[in-house]
Amino acid sequence: MRQSHQLPLLGLLLFSLIPSQLCTICEVSKENYSSLNPLLSTMIHSKYTREIQAANVLLSLRLVGIQDQNIEQKLLKEVRNSEEKKDLTSGQLALVILALRACQNSDESVTNFHLVSQLEEKFQEEIKNMGVHDGNPLTNYYQLSLDLLTLCLFNGSYTITEVKNYFTPENKNFYFGGQFSVDTGAMAVLALTCVKRSIMNQQILTNGEDLQHINNYTESLVKKILSEKKRNGLIGNIYSTGEAMQALFVSPNYYNKNEWNCQQTLDTVLKEISQEAFHMPTAAAQILPALMGKTYLDVNNVSSCASSPGHLNISIDELIPVEPTISPIKISVNYTVQINETFFTNVTVPKGSVFLDVMKEAQKINQTAFRFTYAESSWGPYITSVQGLKENSNDRTYWQLLSGGEPVSQGVASYVVHNGENLEVRWSKY
Ligand code: B12
Ligand SMILES: *[C@@H]1O[C@H](CO)[C@@H](O)[C@H](O)[C@H]1NC(C)=O
Ligand SMILES: *[C@@H]1O[C@H](CO)[C@@H](O)[C@H](O)[C@H]1NC(C)=O
Ligand SMILES: *[C@@H]1O[C@H](CO)[C@@H](O)[C@H](O)[C@H]1NC(C)=O
Ligand SMILES: *[C@@H]1O[C@H](CO)[C@@H](O)[C@H](O)[C@H]1NC(C)=O
Ligand SMILES: *[C@@H]1O[C@H](CO)[C@@H](O)[C@H](O)[C@H]1NC(C)=O
Ligand SMILES: *[C@@H]1O[C@H](CO)[C@@H](O)[C@H](O)[C@H]1NC(C)=O
Ligand SMILES: *[C@@H]1O[C@H](CO)[C@@H](O)[C@H](O)[C@H]1NC(C)=O
Ligand SMILES: *[C@@H]1O[C@H](CO)[C@@H](O)[C@H](O)[C@H]1NC(C)=O
Ligand SMILES: *[C@@H]1O[C@H](CO)[C@@H](O)[C@H](O)[C@H]1NC(C)=O
């Protein structure tokens, strides 16, 4: 009785889920490939293409079919270095696996089989941490989504119950300070889509209701992503748009064609590329696949990688990155550290300086009020403490960067400051 009721339902679901991808994927046309050169230049020439950043870059290049021997060797060495250090977070390990296995035949990748079981453990540690710290993972939901995606693509173990319990779109971890995180939601849509495909290929056994839950989550996340679309076509901000595009590419059945003008998004991104918005290797690596119609779901599809142009007609030696020029002109800014008390000072720096230069100058003026520490990450230096007060993911505390009272969209080593600006680092909760 029960079964005869569920089977038609499942059949209906399967029918409604047949992928019709091609209608929504828009990509840069061959004639316009040269507009991607700034991205490639950034990714290939960066002096800082180390460790996790290297994994981001290798994954991206492989997905779009660029397999230059020299570059591959250099990046692979960095990725393997990071793997050996053993102190990777769950999402970092997931990225390492994605990069090492991207577009490789499965026989070549048997060697790093142990990494998938390590990831299974790290995924469980994230879940365990949520149990004892008020639902807060060790890292964040962007990384849990990367974990699930990687386990799903490479036959690691996870349960549908975990997916159903932890990936509800209302979960607080999809939001920072009340604001929906497009990057996080997009990564979750990619992971959920992989899980859905596994269910449909019967790689994972389940019932029709599970599938419906996953459909509902995906639909709701896609809605939230689209509601962050700006008038110029960007989704969230410029740095989340690439991953949002990937999420929308794989879920065409969850929105109407008139809800998203892919070409407009693409045109705006190309304009931003020409204005050097993607001068960080990780930023370039995260936007490139979508611009060439690829998604992270293609990493285990060798034929998808092989059908890439592979021969973007570029000479790698010709791609010379632009160096910023330090000007002799001085500017001054008002720098504030905000905890419960307010500490501020007038700082003078050369024109063209970044937020980090201001913080270093302030520290020279008064070590007690303005001392700080940072950690290197794939996006550059991340501020970890000020006045000895340390950020903590169990409490969801961090040091927020602001200008004129508004959060900035870049880190301390990228954000260029202006004369008379009011800069602030604020002890905050997300
Ligand atoms: C989670 C997250 C956060 C969390 C990090 C803490 C936590 N619990 O994980 C919180 C909410 C605190 C946060 C803060 C900030 N973030 Co944030 N964050 C992310 C997100 C969604 C995922 C990062 C991640 O885990 N990556 C995967 C792992 C494997 O890589 P990883 O390098 O090991 O990850 C670490 C770093 O990314 C670091 N981190 C997180 N954000 C940022 C931002 C910068 C500039 C740096 C250097 C490092 C950093 O935290 C991660 C965990 O330790 C990304 C989205 C994205 N597309 O990557 C945005 C993202 C990286 N963040 C961004 C920004 C702008 C910030 C802030 C500068 C915002 C602000 N105005 O204060 C601050 C950082 C300030 C500081 N102290 O230096 C931008 C960076 C854009 C750019 N060009 O630099 C992104 C891309 C979001 C976006 N679309 O705008 N972030
Ligand atoms: C190439 O890009 C320009 C804008 O950057 C656009 O107007 C043009 O239509 C694109 N060409 C093709 C063939 O898509
Ligand atoms: C996936 O893993 C299971 C055991 O967990 C194994 O039986 C199966 O053969 C694996 N499938 C593939 C395609 O590797
Ligand atoms: C999915 O959503 C539909 C409509 O929004 C709802 O009727 C249905 O009960 C939901 N199913 C599950 C399993 O949550
Ligand atoms: C793999 O990629 C090819 C080429 O893009 C595509 O035709 C095929 O449907 C993909 N296979 C899967 C399982 O996604
Ligand atoms: C690649 O570019 C070179 C010049 O930069 C040109 O001579 C050659 O014809 C181009 N090849 C293709 C396939 O477009
Ligand atoms: C500098 O910042 C502090 C605190 O943020 C503020 O009280 C002060 O008025 C600012 N000074 C100027 C000149 O803007
Ligand atoms: C800020 O003040 C509140 C209320 O007085 C106090 O509970 C909290 O510990 C203070 N925070 C810091 C970082 O000093
Ligand atoms: C900050 O210092 C500079 C140089 O000493 C000075 O020209 C400027 O007027 C000062 N600004 C404020 C708001 O005090
Ligand atoms: C440094 O800042 C602290 C905290 O505001 C203050 O008590 C101290 O007097 C300052 N020292 C100097 C040399 O200005």
Automatic annotation (TrEMBL):
Segments forming domain Transcobalamin-like C-terminal: 352-429
InterPro entries the record matches: Cbl-bd_prot, Cobalamin_Transport, Transcobalamin-like_C
Swiss-Prot/TrEMBL keywords: Cobalt, Cobalt transport, Ion transport, Secreted, Signal, Transport
Phosphoprotein in keyword set: no
PROSITE patterns: COBALAMIN_BINDING (PS00468)
Subcellular location: Secreted
Signal peptide: 1-23
One Pfam family it belongs to: Cobalamin_bind
Domain of life of the organism encoding this protein: Eukaryota
Gene3D superfamilies from the UniProt entry: 1.50.10.20, 2.170.130.30
Primary residence: secreted
Similarity-based family: Belongs to the eukaryotic cobalamin transport proteins family.
Protein name: Transcobalamin-like C-terminal domain-containing protein
Organism: Pipistrellus nathusii (Nathusius' pipistrelle)
